[in-house]
TrEMBL record:
This is Polysaccharide biosynthesis protein C-terminal domain-containing protein. Keywords: Cell membrane, Membrane, Transmembrane, Transmembrane helix. It is a multi-pass membrane protein. It is found in: Cell membrane. InterPro entries: Poly_Biosynth_Transport (IPR050833).
Amino acid sequence: MAELSSRPKYRRAMNLIGLLAGFGLGQGSLFAVQTWLLATGEIAYMGRFAIINTMILLAYQAIDLGGLVILARHVATEDHAGRDIPTLFWSFSAVRIIIALALTMMGLIWLAVNPTSFDSNYTAMAIPGLILLALSPGGILDGHNMSGWTGATWALPFVASAIALPLGLEMSSRGAGMLLGGALSLGAILAVAVQYGLLRRQGLTVPYRRPKAVVMREGGHEALLYLVGWLPGQLFFRGQVGIAAALLGPNAAALFIYAKQIIMIATRFLVFARRVEYPDLVKQLAERQHLLRKVISIQKISLSMGVLGMVSFAIFGLLMNLAFPLKMHGAGIVIATFSPIILTTSVYATFMQACYAVNRTHTSAWASIVVNVIGLGLLFALVPFIGMTGLALAEGICHTVGIILLIFALRRA
């Protein structure tokens, strides 16, 4: 495969711009529409969409099986290891397709049992996008320092959802679910198509190779370890949504999701900064010396941005509450409450990525399980007594415990 650039700093800057632009266009457009729904009193409709959307997006992200990290790492080191990347990609994709088909069967069974509900129709119409995402070459692009383009393509499902969301207001539950699920699916299909177009344009096509059972097993094992580390945090967020809805009510759950989307603006910026640096991080940590010092040095910009993001969004939330105390239903206070999570997430994710870079996926997986089990217990203990603040406090404690465990693991690497 071709070398793409002799100007790594320029490439990293362009990748960061692409990731930020894709996030701003995608998440920004959907956030703008949800803000309009909140301001016009459609909080129940917004909440119904937001809850199922977060669940389906979990499946969309999970079906990648960590390809953005695993495939990127193999591509970034292929010159040294001599790996056959096309065989790896198609074997890895075969595993993803098997899982996608299993999820498809579950979605269709749900539709058959409950054919008129918003949620089941949304899920059924989102299935085609899920299947196509199993063939996403995003990890190949990332490994060749084209993460900006990968991130930009991910704007498409969100833009499609943002366009469709106001149109579902006057529809039946079934019709609105079909419309919004179909829009998400269409955006995902377009995203994968554009990714393949980018590969072809750069001369980085991955010619079809028959999947090999041994590579599928190896890739599946690596993906399982990645998911064990990644999935608990995602399930923790969905657990927060479920507990907020059950204990505080659906409107509180909608406010929580809305506030977390704003907080995720900051955390996504930091994810993009780390993602751009990931191929270089893998190479820098190849020599297992002074790991903690190297990690902090390479990621110092994203760590500093975490501090800035925490302060900025706390001020933003308080100002929002002062300006719109009634119209925004207290969303500003919720945003300010969750602003420290920007910093704790930044530090925790930095050391988590370092474990991936040195192929200590199993370590990060066990750490993630431990901290999120603790977090779920804290949610049940805190939310009934201190409400929304309990959601934020439990998450912050989770991250702190995780940071300590990962630092200890890296010291022993």
